[in-house]
Specification:
Layout: E1 6-9, H1 14-26, E2 31-34, H2 45-50, E3 58-61, E4 64-67, H3 69-80, H4 93-124, H5 131-139, H6 141-147, H7 161-176, H8 185-195, H9 200-223
Parallel strand pairs: 1-2
Antiparallel strand pairs: 1-3, 3-4
Helix pairs in contact: 1-3, 1-7, 1-9, 4-5, 4-7, 7-9
Length: 225
């Protein structure tokens, strides 16, 4: 019998949380191995053998190594979805292209703008979040709002890995760049819809609270010096 897939991760990380959500959606149990990024464990010789880009998350599925959260989510959905149910990552080429487009929107637009807010605080001692970075992050909400015109989820009426990846970023973004309900009503409803999923709290909210608590705590400390 094969061992459980191993996920090298940090619970605060939005991409890692996206993988946790995907595994939960599939009913798949992972062996979790914590990576301390601040201590640069991701740059160790051992870790670099797994992922030369030295990023997390990384999946080791009985010797098959997969890096980048979006690729990992697709890999897990392809391999571990119940027989006959490809709804999380449709095999239909047209639907899959739409899911992939949303995944690329997350990695090209959403998540980088989140990183530009939280990482300077965590790693470089920044004491405030510039208003232009907040506004720039909020501009990314518009693309999701338009995607949601076609249904309850980012690709129609069924939950996909695009939703699970994007919610990890959007839930983090919202803590620093509020979503205006009058401007983005569909997006607000989508966030609430995803938050109601039974496995959301454990696999996203807990790590999100850790990250937001850390960043806002550091900001408060530095503003009072």
């Amino acid at each position: 019998m094969s061992a459980k897939p191993i996920l090298y991760y940090a619970p605060r990380s939005p991409p890692c949380r996206a993988v946790l959500l995907t595994a939960a959606a599939l009913g798949l149990e992972l062996e979790l191995r914590l990576v301390n990024v601040k201590a640069e464990e991701h740059k160790s010789a051992e870790f670099l053998k797994l992922n030369a880009q030295h990023t997390i998350p990384v999946l080791d599925d009985n010797g098959t190594i997969v890096s980048d959260s979006h690729i990992i989510c697709g890999y897990l959905a392809d391999k571990y979805a119940p027989a006959g149910d490809d709804s999380l990552y449709p095999k239909d080429p047209e639907k899959r292209r739409l899911v992939d487009a949303r995944l690329y929107y997350d990695c090209g637009h959403l998540f980088p703008r989140v990183r530009f807010i939280v990482e300077p605080v965590i790693y470089f001692g920044v004491g405030e979040v510039p208003a232009d970075r907040v506004a720039y992050l909020q501009k990314a909400y518009d693309g999701l709002e338009h995607c949601l015109a076609g249904g309850d989820y980012l690709v129609g009426d069924k939950l996909t890995i695009a939703d699970l990846s994007c919610i990890a970023s959007v839930s983090t973004a919202e803590a620093f760049a509020p979503i205006a309900a009058d401007q983005f009503p569909r997006l607000v409803q989508w966030v609430q819809r995803i938050q109601a999923i039974p496995y959301y709290q454990k696999n996203n909210q807990e790590g999100l609270d850790m990250l937001v608590g850390l960043v806002k705590g550091l900001l408060a400390e530095r503003q009072h010096k």
